[in-house]
Amino acid sequence: MAERRSPPVRARQLARELRRLREIEGLTGEEVAGSLGWSSAKVSRVETAATLVRPGDLGKLIDLYHVTGSHRERLLAMARGAEERGWWDAFPDVGSDYADYIGLEAETQALRCYSAQSLNGLLQTEEYARALIGMVVDPAPGRVERRVDVRLRRQRRLREEPPVDLHVVLDEAAIRRRVGGPAVMKAQLEHLSALAEMPNVVIQVLPFDAGAHAAMAGSFITLKFPHPQTDMVFVELLRGSVYVEDEMEVYRYHLAFEQLRERAIPPDESSAFIRRAADEM
């Protein structure tokens, strides 16, 4: 049976925002419960995403917190998004963790990615994706191809209106590692050069001689949303993934990316670097 997508990340986004709004109003959970005729436990469940807030209850909360206009509409849209199903649900091999990420990627305004060992999925050619996925996914009949299809479908995000604003810092290791062999990697690097010409895509290379840096621990992706308090960081692990949602921790990743960006080769020079690497394949 296909694994049904769960909504914990989107729900946590909404829950965190509701808690922030309560704190801005200077209210305690008990005071909110008293104003709305709820139990304190219900307020706690809503603010910890232990339960999805119902539309009627959400309306009462945002009225209490004096939220109006576009901010109000965004909160209502977040609540709807926590329950909606996306195109990725048609693929039986997309697990809940991956589906959560795709859903967030579909909604984000901007992505800031540091890729240490392999290229971000939005940048991959079909052949590169197939070679990479085949190494990390159980090669059951059709499973790799379905994962490749999902990855290529995600890439429409670069061209849909409005397109996502993508800024990637690639470690030189991701450029030099011959995923799929020299021919596949050469085509992949030529594809990178073409993508770098898009107005919404910036690609920089962090060369080996840049030395140690703030992201030696590995790759990460910062997802930026219309309201900065809902930004988050995605860190993929060998098995599973982690979302960093604490505002201060997200800010630290932002600073790390800025350091990487400053130490990386400028975009124009990076394109030339990638073309030279392709010629060397």
UniProtKB/TrEMBL annotation:
Gene3D superfamilies: lambda repressor-like DNA-binding domains. It holds the Pfam family DUF5753. SMART domains: HTH_XRE. Residues 18-72 form the HTH cro/C1-type domain. One of its GO terms (molecular function) is DNA binding. This is Helix-turn-helix domain-containing protein. It comes from Actinomadura litoris.
